[in-house]
Design brief:
This protein is mainly beta. The protein contains one helix and ten strands.
């Protein structure tokens, strides 16, 4: 496993409330545990973060051209609030908050091509 992959995994873990994770790809893998985390005894952990997935395949936009982003990490949002949109040809599919809470991470970048269901934001209720 190369250093850039390790950096990517640890950067991603910091955006979640995970304390332990395993990674395996093409027969190569590693286990990760955040500093101070106790090992899992039952193998099960619950995540309180709610992902906000892309409604379509397209180009993610955090705001209309020339406008400030309507949602970013640290922002408080209400259920149903528009967080951005996905451009699908000339159509703009809104990305709406499924719950009220605080945005803890916004992994998708403005202008990035996204897949259906890809996490654009994570909200902590």
């Amino acid at each position: 496993m190369d250093e850039s992959t390790l950096r990517e995994i640890t950067r991603w873990m910091r955006t979640t409330d995970l304390v332990e994770a395993s990674y395996r790809r093409s027969g190569v893998g590693a286990g990760f545990r955040m500093d101070g985390a106790e090992p899992s005894t039952d193998g099960l952990r619950t995540c309180r973060l709610v992902p906000v997935g892309s409604p379509e395949v397209g180009i993610f936009r955090s705001s209309a051209l020339g406008s400030a982003p309507s949602a970013a990490a640290g922002a408080t949002v209400k259920e149903g609030q528009p967080l951005g949109f996905v451009e699908v040809g000339t159509r703009k599919e809104p990305v709406l908050a499924p719950i009220s809470g605080k945005i803890t991470a916004a992994p998708a970048e403005d202008g990035q091509a996204v897949q259906y269901g890809q996490a654009l934001y994570f909200i902590e209720p």
